[in-house]
Amino acid sequence: MLTRFTGDPRAMQVLELAIVAGSFALVLFRAPFSVPVRVMIVAGYCLGFEYGVISRGYGLGVLALLLVLVALARPRPAWGAALAAATLLAWTSLAGAVALDPGPRSAPRRRFVLGGLLVATASALTCLPPSDFHAFTPSLGNFATIGGSGVTRFVDATTGIWRALVPIPARLGGWNSQLLDRLPAAPWLQALASVVLFALVLAALPRSMGRRLWWLGALATWGFFLVVVLPDEARYADVVFLLFLAALWLAVAPPGRPAAAPAASGRRRLPAVVLVVLAAQVVALVAVAPSLAFTPFSPDQAVARAARAAHLQDAIVSGEDFDATAVGAYLDRPSYSVARGAWIRFFVHDDLEARRRARLTTAATVCAAAALAGRLHRPVGAHHPGGPAPPGRRPGHARPARRPVPGDAGRRRCLPARPCGAVAPGRPGLTDA
C-alpha cells in the first residue's frame, strides 16, 4: 500500500513503529500471562528485534496473529473477528496459513475452522510460482525436487524449533547465527535439540486447543521449511516461536473458558519450559540488538546517499538487482537492470534474472553503464557485482561514451576510449558503488 504513495523505505519504518506498538500493547494488556512473562515476551528477540526493530512485512503477520489470539482466548470467543484476523494472517504470510483447531464443536467454531481452511488454501495456491520461477524457491510446489541436497535438507528443516526457541547467537552481534553453529555436525545437533524441545513443550502443555496447535503447527512448519524455505535465517525460523506463543496463549486461556495461570493449567513443567524459552529470547536480544540497532543497518542506504550527493539518482545502472532495488527505493527512483535490460523498481527473482545474472561480469555492467551514459549525455552510476572480469581486464571505472554509432538506429553502444572494465587512473567517470 505504501508504494502507491512513496518508494522511500522510511515510510516502512513509520508503519512498522505503529504495528509493533499495537503488537506490544496486545501482549502487555491482553495476554493471559503474569506481568513478568508479558514483559519477557516483548523484550525477547523475536518480537522485540526480528519482527520489531527491523522493518519488514512480518510485523503485520505478528499483529494479525495476536488479534486472532485475543479474539479467541476469552469466555465468549469472538469467532467472526478471529476469522477476519486469521484471513489477514493467511494473506500476509504463507507460514501463517494454518488452521487453529481440527475439532469444531459449535456452529461459530465450525465456521471459523472451515473459513480458516478456505483462506489458508487460497493463500497457499496464490504462492505457487509460475513455470519460469525456479531459482529462488526450487522446491515450492514440486515434491520431486525436495532434497536437492540429499538428507541435509531434511536435517536442516528439522533445526527450526531449536533455532527459533533458543536464538542465542554464536557471538555478540552475530545476527542470523546460532550458538551451536560452530560445533562439528551442527545441523545434526540442532535437529536433535529441536526434537527434544518439541517433546518437552508437548509434554508440558495441557490437553487443549493449545497442545493440538503445537503438534499440528510444528508438523506444518516443518513441511514449510522443507518445501518453501529453510530456517537458516532468524526471520524464517522465528515462525516457530510465534507458534509456541500461540499454543501457550490458547493453553492458558482456552476459548470458552476463563483464563488460568500457567501453574494451575494442569502441567507443573509448563512454567519452567516457558521461563527457559523466554530467557533465551531475552539473552538473544541483548546479544544481537545493541550492535545492530544503533549502527547503519543498510549499506544500500549509504550507496543511495552517495548517488544523491553526486547527482546520479536518476541514472543508476545495476548488475545486482537485489541491491539495486533497495538503492532505488531510498532514492525513490527506478534503477536500470543489466540482467533484465529494463528499468526496475521491484526485485523479480525469476529464471530470466537468475540466468542472466549468472553470466553477468563486472565489465558487462560497466559497458552497459557507459552505453547509457552515451544515450543520456551525462555521467551515470554503476552498481556492479564482484564477478570475474574478462581476461586481461580489471574491474573498475570506465568513461561514458560520447559519440553515436553510425547506422545503429539512433542507439549508442559501449565505445569507451579504452577497453570496458579498464581503470582510468585518476579519472573515475562512473561512481563505483
- Give average pLDDT, whole number: 80
Helicity range of the residues? Answer: 40-55%
So how many helices?
Answer: 17
Percent range for β-strand residues:
under 5%
Distance between termini? Answer: 30 Å
Structural class: mainly alpha
* Elements, N to C (H/E): HHHHHHHHHHHHHHEHEEHHEE
Low-confidence stretches: 142-147, 261-266, 387-433
Can you describe what's shown?
With 433 residues, this protein is mostly helical. It is 52% helix and 3% strand. α15 links the parallel β1 and β2. The model is unreliable at 142-147, 261-266 and 387-433 (pLDDT under 50).
Summarize the structure.
The chain is mostly helical. Helices cover 52% and strands 3% of the residues. Strand 1, helix 15 and strand 2 form a beta-alpha-beta unit.
Task: Write the topology of this structure.
Elements: H1 10-30, H2 35-42, H3 45-53, H4 58-72, H5 79-90, H6 107-126, H7 151-158, H8 160-165, H9 186-204, H10 209-227, H11 234-237, H12 239-252, H13 270-293, H14 299-309, E1 316-318, H15 321-331, E2 335-337, E3 342-344, H16 351-359, H17 362-376, E4 381-383, E5 431-432
Could you list some keywords that capture this structure?
433 residues; five-stranded mixed β-sheet; 17 helices; 5 strands; 52% helix
